[in-house]
Design a protein that fits this description.
The chain has 460 residues and is of the alpha+beta class. It folds into 2 domains: 276 residues, no CATH class; 94 residues, Sandwich (Immunoglobulin-like). The chain contains 12 helices and 15 strands. The strands form 4 sheets. Strands 7, 8, 9, 10, 12 and 15 form a 6-stranded antiparallel sheet that branches. Strands 5-6-11-14-13 form a 5-stranded mixed sheet. A two-stranded antiparallel sheet has the order 1-2. The longest helix has 22 residues. The radius of gyration is 22 Å and the shape is globular.
C-alpha cells in the first residue's frame, strides 16, 4: 500500500511498484481481450511470468484492479509533477485502464436522463466453482453499481483530462462524461433510519462455493450488501443489516483511496459517508486499517469518533520495530496509516469534476485538535508545506511555509476561516515582496508561484 507515501513526502519509495505492474501489461491486454474489450484488465492476484492466482481464480470477478493500480500512478503525478513519469507511465496506463471500462460499461437513458452504468462487476471478492466461466461470473458474482469500482472509475475519469493536457495528448470527451454522469453510489437505510453507502446496487451472491444449484431470488434492498467473511459473503445469506458492524470498509473506499468523495462533496454526501463509517466501525478490522482512518479524516468526521480507536489499536498492536501486527485479517494492509496522520494536518482535496484542480486544506478538523506542528508534508501540485496549529487561538501558529517545486498555482482552503484580502497575506520568502492573491466566493485563496520558490502565508 503506497497511499501514505505521497502526502508524507516519500516519493522515492513509490518508484519500485511500476516495474512489476508494467511487466504484467501484455497479460493485462490479453485479459481485456478475453472480455472482448481493449485496454488493461488486471487480476486481484498477480505474480511473475503471468501468474494470476491459484487455479486462475485471481480475478475474483473484480474488474477494477487496473484502476486501483492507476490511482497510485495518478497520485505520483499529482504530488510530484514528474513529466517524464506522466508521459511514459502514468498517463498511458491510466488511459488504457479506463479504456476497458469504456467498453465494459453501458450507456443508459432513463426517462431522458443519460448515464453510464457499470452492470457487471464485483464489489469485493467472488470466485466461482471451477472451471471458471463468464456465464458463472454473471450468474453468481456480478453486481450492478459496485461502490468500489464506481468510485475508482469516477476518480480516474476525473483525473485523465488534466493529465492528457499536461502530457500534450488529446482529451477524450467520454472521460468527463463518465465523471459527470456515472451512476450515483448505492445507499440503503439502516435499522435506525440512517442512510449509508453499501457495496452494490444489487447483490445476488449468496451461494456456497461448489454449489451449482440454481440461484435463489436476490435479497431485499439493504440486506446482505457487504461481502465479508464476518457476515454473509459466499455463505447462505439470511437477512442481515445493511452494514454489519466490524465488516471490511469497502463501501468507504470511494472516499479513500478513490477520492471520489471528499471535503468538496455536498453536505448530504458527507453525512452519508460519516454515517457509513460510524455504522461499520471497522476501526480494528485488519483489511480496513490502512484506509479507514483516512476515510474518517477526509469527510470531516470529528476526531473524537475515530482518533481514540486509532490510538488504542496502535498501543495494543505495534511491535518494537514499528510494524502493526495482530490486527485481524491483516497482511500488507496494516501499512499506510501514516496517511491518516497527515490528513489531520494537511489534505489535498480534488473535486472529481475533471478540472484537475486541487486545494491544500490545512487542519481540516479543528474541534478537539491539540496544538501541533508539521514539517514538509507534500500537497498535490508538487508543493511542500510546513505549518502549525495553536489550539488556544484556534488558528495557525505563525506563518505556513510553502515550497513550490513545479511553479504551479497554489490553492489554499481553510474550512474554519474564510480568506479574503483583509484576513491573509502572502510574501515571497526570498525577496519579501507581497504576492498578488485571488479569492473565490467560498473564501478560498490562490496565487501564482515560480519553480523552486518559497512563500510565507500569514493570517492577519
Amino acid at each position: 500500500m503506497y497511499w501514505g507515501l505521497y502526502a508524507t513526502n516519500r516519493l522515492a519509495q513509490t518508484e519500485s511498484q511500476a516495474g512489476a505492474i508494467l511487466a504484467f501489461e501484455p497479460k493485462a491486454r490479453e485479459r481485456a481481450a478475453h472480455f472482448d474489450c481493449g485496454g488493461l484488465h488486471y487480476p486481484g492476484d498477480m505474480g511473475p511470468l503471468g501468474f494470476t492466482g491459484l487455479k486462475g481464480q485471481g480475478d475474483m470477478a473484480i474488474q477494477s484492479n487496473g484502476l486501483l493500480t492507476a490511482v497510485n500512478f495518478i497520485q505520483q503525478w499529482e504530488y510530484g509533477r514528474d513529466l517524464r513519469f506522466l508521459r511514459s507511465v502514468a498517463f498511458p496506463f491510466t488511459r488504457d485502464a479506463l479504456a476497458f471500462y469504456l467498453c465494459w460499461m453501458t450507456r443508459t437513458n432513463n426517462s431522458g436522463v443519460v448515464s453510464w452504468a457499470n452492470t457487471k462487476d464485483q464489489g469485493h471478492e467472488c470466485s466461482t466453482p471451477l472451471p471458471q466461466t463468464e456465464e458463472k461470473r454473471e450468474r453468481l458474482c456480478y453486481q450492478t453499481n459496485s461502490v468500489l469500482a464506481n468510485g475508482l472509475i469516477r476518480r480516474v475519469a476525473s483525473a485523465l483530462p488534466s493529465m492528457a493536457r499536461a502530457a500534450g495528448e488529446s482529451v477524450d470527451d467520454r472521460w468527463s462524461d463518465v465523471a459527470r454522469t456515472l451512476e450515483a453510489p448505492p445507499t440503503a437505510r439502516t435499522k435506525d433510519g440512517r442512510e449509508v453507502f453499501v457495496l452494490a446496487g444489487s447483490y445476488e451472491q449468496d451461494r456456497a462455493l461448489g454449489d451449482e444449484a440454481p440461484p435463489p431470488p436476490p435479497p431485499p434492498p439493504g440486506w446482505c450488501t457487504v461481502n465479508d467473511a464476518q457476515n454473509c459473503g459466499t455463505r447462505a445469506c439470511p437477512p442481515c443489516e445493511a452494514l454489519p458492524p466490524g465488516a471490511q470498509n469497502i463501501p468507504a473506499w470511494q472516499i479513500w483511496p478513490a477520492e471520489a468523495v471528499n471535503l468538496a462533496s455536498g453536505s448530504q454526501v458527507l453525512e452519508v459517508a460519516r454515517a457509513t463509517l460510524s455504522t461499520m466501525a471497522s476501526w480494528d478490522q485488519g483489511n480496513s486499517f490502512c484506509g479507514v482512518y483516512s476515510q474518517a479524516a477526509r469527510v470531516g468526521m470529528p476526531l473524537s469518533q475515530w482518533l481514540p480507536q486509532l490510538r488504542a489499536v496502535l498501543a495494543a498492536k505495534t511491535m518494537d520495530n514499528g510494524i502493526v501486527a495482530g490486527v485481524a485479517g491483516a497482511g500488507a494492509e496494516v501499512v499506510g496509516v501514516t496517511q491518516a496522520l497527515a490528513d489531520i494536518m494537511l489534505q489535498s482535496v480534488t473535486p472529481p469534476d475533471g478540472s484537475g484542480v486541487s486545494w491544500a486544506v490545512l487542519f481540516p478538523i479543528t474541534t478537539n485538535l491539540t496544538t501541533m506542528r508539521f514539517f514538509q508534508l507534500r500537497a498535490k501540485g508538487a508543493f511542500v508545506v510546513s505549518a502549525g496549529w495553536d489550539a488556544d487561538k484556534q488558528s495557525l501558529a505563525g506563518p505556513a511555509e510553502v515550497l513550490s517545486e513545479a511553479g504551479e498555482r497554489f490553492r489554499l482552503w481553510l474550512p474554519w476561516r474564510p480568506l479574503n484580502a483583509s484576513t491573509v497575506c502572502v510574501t515571497d520568502s526570498a525577496t519579501g515582496a507581497d504576492i498578488s492573491l485571488s479569492f473565490d466566493a467560498g473564501g478560498r485563496m490562490s496565487f501564482d508561484t515560480r519553480a523552486a520558490g518559497s512563500y510565507s502565508v500569514r493570517l492577519v
